[in-house]
Amino acid sequence: MLLAVLCVSMIACCRKTGRRAAMASVEHEAPAPRARAIQSEEQAAWPVVLPYFPYAAQAQGRASETLCAICLEPLRQGQHCSEVPACRHAFHRDCLGVWARSKGTCPLCRAKIVPGSDVVAVAHDMV
Questions:
Q1: Disulfide-capable partner of 87 in 25, 71, 83, 111 (CB 3.0 to 4.6 Å)?
Q2: pTM for this model (two decimals)
Q3: C-alpha–C-alpha distance, residues 65 and 73, integer Å
Q4: Where is the signal peptide (predicted)?
């Protein structure tokens, strides 16, 4: 009986020690997300401007809508859109602006939105 109590208490002690070690390693890894957040804030401070244009549907002979791959809403006649220069994929202007600030690549093919830069802003005063 004494042996059983001793074994149970040793197991409990080992589990506590294991949890403490795991928590300590998590505490040491915690600064990494903060470093990423600072990097994102720094990147947002120096944006590159993408022009936009009014969307004009292409006559293709079939009844299909072109969707913005970011928000999954259709691109409508006259809506402001922007395209990724490297691949020419088009998206809603605001959708691509938000996406580009966080990702820096095309949502469809992962081409860099602006070669040599990971940050993009969308022009709001261009037509």
A1: 111
A2: 0.53
A3: 9
A4: 1-16
